[in-house]
Amino acid sequence: MTQDQTTGPDAATETPVPWRPSRTVAVVLAGGTGTRLGLGIPKQLLKIAGKPIIEHTLAVFEAAPEIDEIIVLMATGHVEDARQIVEKAGLRKVTKVIEGGDTRNATTRIALDAVGPADCNILFHDAVRPLLSGRIVRECVNALWTYDAVDVAIPSADTIIQVDENDCITDIPVRSRLRRGQTPQAFRSPTIREAYRIAEDDPNFAATDDCGVVLRYLPGTPIKVIDGSDENIKVTHPVDVHLADKLFQLAAAQAPRLTNHRSYTEELTGRTIVVFGGSYGIGHELTELARGFGAQVFPFSRSTTGTHVERAEDVEAALKTAFEATGRIDHVVVTAGILERGALAEMDEETMDRLLQVNFVGPVTIARQALPYLQQTKGQLLLYTSSSYTRGRARYALYSATKAALVNLTQALADEWADVGVRVNCINPERTATPMRTRAFGEEPEHTLLAAEAVAQSSLDVLVSDLTGQVIDVRRAPGDGPAPAAVPAQSGAGRVEVSAGTTSAS
Are residues 41 and 170 located together in one domain of the fold? Predict the structure, then answer.
């Protein structure tokens, strides 16, 4: 059928054809080699929060409903490493893992060939930006209904200066109009293809930014900028590794609770939990809470069962008891610990030895003994630290040191045991109302302490989560006293507020 092309004074203005993409593809650019981090492996393979950086990044796109397909462009010699990560993580949206080019431009061209000729949305994202949010992905895709190209950026908090070859200032641009670019950068596929087609005729073409290619070679194309986030950092320098790790801790600490009593019951019925230090305080509350949801819980402690966590034979016997009774061990929780105050120079050797044995040797012993059981169930080891791990405090030297050691132990074991599917996390409670704390500090105003029940609830949330390698900070909501953190039978449960606390007492 031939369309009438007759035009005249009264003819309607021609309207552009609506954009109808066949799909939306996320292209994850993982070509970095990690030279600035001083690593022997590409930085995208470095583990943060228990997983390789690239796995965190891919998981964001996997979870985004706006994304239909993921293509990975990997550094030379490491394609198989990336494929193994994809397979192990069960990332179903990843359709291709291929080798990238020698430059960013070459890698983009390879990606465009891999995407294919059909009209689609394409998002290019740095693999080493693992803290990308679903909100940014959503806004990028939505913006492509209106714009041909989309960038992500945040305002510059610093004044930017321009210098000459002698490092003398030549200009100070107005900061309010400046932005710091991030990724993803999103395009309608015909637009980015055309920009690169034109660029091929330029012998001086070189760019590290795909929006820059569109800006230079398709100058009439508006490029929409949407708000990025401060958390969407690029892991480039050694300090970035530490920042990203901490940001993951803060994000993980906000994992939501299950919605109701039934959800917890479905997760915990038939599970076996062993709690070392379960006679009082947080351990006791966790025991009672988990039992209420159908878990089979076996609490062990020095005072009730004669179990000394620093003795391998005691730990072995405790684990064997639980396993023989139920045929499985899903979670092992270590709340056992002692708090002795005093100047190091004035502390007797017996006290020092007891602190080190119970607070550190004990968790290490339990970890070694528990691994074979947890491997069978793909379970979790849960440890407890104190905010004093972030800096040693006077008259808490050994206590602080052992709590810092537990954080390092958590992160190391999460990495070490990832291949066998065993998760390891650490709870960092605010000052908590427990008998141990009362013995050390006496009676304190109730409104200043976190309830042991609240810490137990957060602990349970971590146990039923997929988290690993995390230090989860638990604190009271502003103005709250130590109210129990019970889960309502029908209505949705709340969420424990999280941030750095000041003292752990488990």
Answer: yes
Structural domain harbouring 213: 24-233
Q: How many domains, in total, are found in the chain? A: 2
C-alpha 212/C-alpha 200 separation (Å) is 14
Taking each continuous run of H as one helix and of E as one strand, the counts in the chain are 15, 19
Q: What is the CATH number of the domain that holds 347?
A: 3.40.50.720
The span from the first CA to the last CA of the chain, in angstroms, equals 80
State whether residue 21 is helix, strand or coil. Answer: coil
User: Which tens digit of pLDDT belongs to each residue from 308-358?
Assistant: 999 999 999 999 999 999 999 999 999 999 888 889 999 999 999 999 999
504 belongs to a structural domain:
no
Average pLDDT of 105-109? 90
pLDDT at 479: 53
Distance CA 219, CA 210 (A): 13
Pairing state between β 272-276 and 331-334: parallel
Tell me the C-alpha distance between 350 and 213, whole Å.
69
Task: Give the bridge partners for 97, in sequence order.
Answer: 72
Q: What count of other Cβ atoms lies within 10 Å of the Cβ of residue 33?
A: 16
pTM for the complete prediction?
0.72
Report the distance separating Cα 91 and Cα 78, nearest Å: 18
Q: Does residue 500 lie within any of the structural domains?
A: no
Structure tokens at 373: 């059981």
